[in-house]
Design brief:
By secondary structure, this protein is α/β, with parallel strands linked by helices. The chain has 2 domains: about 10-120, no CATH class; about 125-309, 3-Layer(aba) Sandwich (Uracil-DNA Glycosylase, subunit E). The chain has 11 helices and 8 strands. It has helices spanning about 10, 60-65, 70-75, 75-85, 100-110, 125, 165-175, 190-195, 220-230, 245-255, 285-295, and strands spanning about 15-25, 25-35, 115, 135-140, 195-200, 205, 240-245, 260-265. The protein has a 4-stranded parallel sheet with strand order 5-4-7-8, with helices on both faces. Strands 1-2 form a two-stranded antiparallel sheet. A two-stranded antiparallel ribbon has the order 3-6. β7, α10 (about 245-255) and β8 (about 260-265) form a beta-alpha-beta unit. The two termini are about 25 Å apart.
């Protein structure tokens, strides 16, 4: 499936956004005006990473963290439209206790380095528009060391060394797909463009501190991302790969409809657990067989597309 979007009159209208942010213990009102939606990344279906021009309409980072401006500027339109109701909910923007996900992130960015970079928090949405999703692969939280996380679960940009979990993923793909040659890069963007949503349940992390942003609201948001996929009216269903207990619990909590989805649980690909059921699970072969049976010829994921780089 290919996502297309035609600019409408509504898209041309200026967006007026106002938020209240906390700065040095005082409430400060900040207004962003005259931002046209046609200039935003979410109207560009196949943007890999936000470029300098794409982000030229971003207000100061402190506002972008609290306001949905970050979502407007860096999230693909198909996802933004599906998830927009979440942006005004208490857990996301302003909770009843005056502490929300965005307020937490604001404080984290003031005091620590946070990964991935702001422009890449929603890169998964730009690489895999909602209407294009055929496979969902759930991770937990982003890599927390320098130069690793860029918004896709398990993926790293060159020249970063391929992490152990991704190396095991590559080994399993090579077992399932004879044409696949283990690449030297850990960048999974080409596979994402083919319809694989590489999604972490938590979208940010404090540098060098794993799971530091867990339980702050991202899990509620990404659960809605998954619901957006499963509730899609069109299409013949999707494949879910749930590796490790946390990913499986997430899917169980949401309630994956196994009539319309192919649910594949297994051990996590981490070197600590891959031998307990990930290696040999055949997930990549099974995914393609299921997609072929549901969608017909040409629906398979080209896992070996990484060899074209």
């Amino acid at each position: 499936p290919k996502h297309t979007h035609k600019t409408t009159k509504d898209d041309e209208e200026s967006v007026h956004a106002m938020t209240t942010i906390s700065r040095a213990g005082r409430l400060v009102r900040s207004t962003v005006t005259h931002v046209t939606r046609t200039s935003m990344v979410h109207n560009t279906p196949h943007v890999d990473r936000a470029t300098k021009d794409d982000l030229s309409v971003l207000p100061p980072p402190t506002v972008g963290l609290v306001l949905s401006t970050l979502e407007l500027n860096t999230m693909h339109k198909s996802w933004y439209d599906a998830l927009q109701p979440e942006f005004n909910k208490d857990y996301f923007l302003k909770g009843s206790t005056d502490y929300s996900l965005k307020q937490f992130l604001l404080q984290e960015h003031k005091s620590y380095t946070v990964y991935p970079p702001m422009a890449d928090v929603y890169s998964w949405s730009r690489l895999t528009p909602l209407d294009a999703v055929k496979v969902v692969i759930l991770g937990q939280d982003p890599y927390h060391n320098v130069g690793q996380a860029h918004g896709l679960s398990f993926s790293v940009l060159p020249p970063t060394k391929i992490p152990g979990s991704l190396r095991n993923i590559y080994k399993q793909i090579s077992d399932d797909i004879p044409s696949f040659v283990i690449p030297q890069t850990g960048d999974l963007s080409p596979i994402a463009r083919s319809g694989v949503l590489w999604l972490n349940t938590s979208l940010t992390v404090r540098a060098h501190k794993a799971y530091s942003h867990a339980g702050k609201g991202w899990e509620t948001f990404t659960a809605q991302v998954i619901r957006a996929v499963t509730s899609r009216a069109d299409g013949n269903g999707v494949v879910f790969m749930a590796w490790g207990l946390p990913a499986q619990k997430t899917c169980d909590k949401i309630g994956i409809d196994e009539v319309r989805a192919f649910f594949n649980p297994s051990a996590h690909p981490s070197p600590l657990s891959a031998h307990r059921g990930f290696i040999g699970n055949g997930h990549f072969r099974k995914a393609n067989e299921w997609l072929l049976s549901r969608y017909g010829d040409g629906a398979e994921i080209r896992w070996d597309i990484l060899n074209d780089q």
